[in-house]
Design brief:
There is one protein chain. The chain is α/β, with parallel strands linked by helices. Helices cover 27% and strands 23% of the residues. It is built from nine helices and 14 strands. The strands form two sheets. Strands 6-5-4-3-2-1-14 form a seven-stranded mixed β-sheet. The protein has a seven-stranded mixed β-sheet with strand order 7-8-9-10-11-12-13. A hairpin with a 2-residue loop joins β9 (148-154) and β10. α8 (215-224) runs parallel beside α9. The longest helix is centred in the last third of the chain and has 13 residues, at 245-257. It starts with 16 loop residues before the first strand and ends with a strand. The structure holds zinc ion (ZN) (2 copies). The site of one zinc ion has 6 residues, from α2.
């Protein structure tokens, strides 16, 4: 909730943007992005019932949802999609390639392909508008049909959201410049992954250029390319088997601490798999 400055003599429209992470990790991803006029669900990787339950628990009104935006077709990002879109009767924004792969890979109980009635296709690199929110999708390196990260702009506030990427290519760094809030992947600790329980094939996939971002790779971005503009940072898609939340936090803190004294532990939040985060508000 935002309040106008007490100095304001008249009630001006209160401008703020809010991000509420409902779930993050390999068992489901879902985040609510809200402006004054609209709310968007970014990914739908937990069940419809759980999504609505967590929204209400965090004070988010499902009635405000104007659209669902999908990053890629992996199950942890779309498990609740078909039911949510049908129940909420709101459009789903996804790239055409993502839609076709999703349809091919996800069937109903009788084996029939699923479909989405109200569908809008976006193209990475081309911004589009949902109410007063400007959404910019951009290509990320990941083993899916057409995976995307996003920035969202409303009321002069920019929020970046990027998970599921094998490394940080220049176009991603470019898109994340000037973010006031940033949710970014800190998936695994390399040593834990190497020594952990995953089969070698899976380890290789996670470590590859189209896998997931390690704590170290994120730290390298923070040290070398990150502009330090965000008032909050959310470390996301943290592996339950190959990472420790505190390891992710301290690696990020150390990387940020060297160059930015403004950052301290209060600015870094860790996203969870089973419990939503308190809404983070900007503006
Ligand atoms: Zn994922
Ligand atoms: Zn994925």
């Amino acid at each position: 909730m935002c309040f106008p400055s007490p100095n304001f003599r008249f009630m001006l429209p209160v401008m703020c943007v809010r991000m509420t992470v409902l779930a993050s990790g390999s068992r489901g991803n879902c985040t609510v992005l809200s402006s004054e006029n609209a709310a968007i669900l970014v990914d739908a990787g937990i069940s419809c019932r759980e999504t609505l339950k967590r929204m209400r628990a965090m004070g988010e009104d499902p009635e405000q949802l104007k659209a669902i935006v999908i990053s890629h077709e992996h199950n942890d990002h779309v498990a609740g999609l078909e039911v949510l879109a049908r129940k909420l009767k709101i459009p789903v924004y996804m790239s055409e390639a993502t839609y076709h792969r999703w349809r091919r890979e996800h069937k109903d109980d009788e084996g029939r392909p699923l479909s989405i009635e109200r569908r809008e296709h976006f193209a990475p690199g081309r911004s589009f508008q949902i109410a007063d929110i400007t959404v910019t999708p951009f290509t990320i390196p990941h083993d899916a049909a057409d995976p995307c990260g996003f920035t969202f702009k409303a009321s002069g506030v920019k929020i970046g959201l990027v998970t599921d990427l094998g490394y940080m290519p220049p176009n991603v760094k470019e898109n994340l410049r000037g973010c006031d809030g940033l949710m970014i992947e800190s998936n695994h600790d390399l040593e834990m992954l190497r020594n952990g329980p995953y089969p070698w094939m899976v380890k290789q996939r996670v470590m590859s250029r189209v896998g997931h971002l390690s704590n170290t790779a994120l730290a390298e971005f923070f040290e070398t390319d990150y502009d330090g503009s965000a008032a909050f940072l959310v470390l996301a898609h943290i592996s339950e088997e190959n990472n420790h939340p505190e390891l992710a936090r301290t690696t990020a803190q150390r990387a940020l601490g060297g160059k930015m004294t403004l950052f301290n532990s209060a600015n870094i939040t860790l996203a969870h798999q089973d419990t939503p985060l308190q809404p983070l508000t900007l503006g």
